[in-house]
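W.,

You were right to be curious about this one. When I first looked at the sequence I had no strong expectations either way, so I just let the prediction run and decided to look at it fresh. Below is the sequence, 208 residues in total, followed by the output.
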Amino acid sequence: MRGRSAVAIGLVVVGALAMRHGARDREPRVHYRDFGGPRSLWHIPDGKALPSSAPTRVEIPDIGVDAPVMRVGLNKDGTVGVPPFHKAGHTGWYERGPAPGSRGPSVMLGHYDDMHGPAVFHRLHRLRPGARIRVTRRDRSVAVFRVDAMERVPKWEFPRARVYGKVRYAGLRLITCGGTYDKTDRSYNDNVIVYAHLTRGEVRHSPV
């Protein structure tokens, strides 16, 4: 993300706030599916879940991500806080939601690029269903997720229900910018969103 990235990705959290007031959104366009259709994310079995523990690192081998995680919350204007540009190699965990591995939709955000080049989620759009995401947590457990779907949607059509909607399984949503870069607005027009769920039998502890 360049320039006004905090405003651009802030639409994500505006969507979260709207969900609390019963706002509805259009059915998003899912480009890569694994569970048989765009409504399938709501029917993933509950499966296992972990006690809440803040994430400290995320690894996505298929796209070469191995990055530290920092907490982000809300700005005064209601937009989501994102990692500062001098930490464009970090991901941000939205701490007002579930921790990765706990039940519910955990949300992590990262920059697509900065003024110096590619950032942590520059290749997020290349993920495909079945890819693995490993999140190391403060309690030294490692939560392993399986990618279910990826979509790219215009920011003004952000799929609030899919990202923040209540689910009983331990879900993970990774978000960055994508699409065409608008030189006038100094922002990308779309959001890239990856959906994943905690896999069974793959929660293990990292070395001390």
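Here's what jumped out at me. Residues 1-39 have pLDDT under 50 and may be disordered. And, maybe more interesting for your project: The radius of gyration is 16 Å.

Coffee later to discuss?

I.
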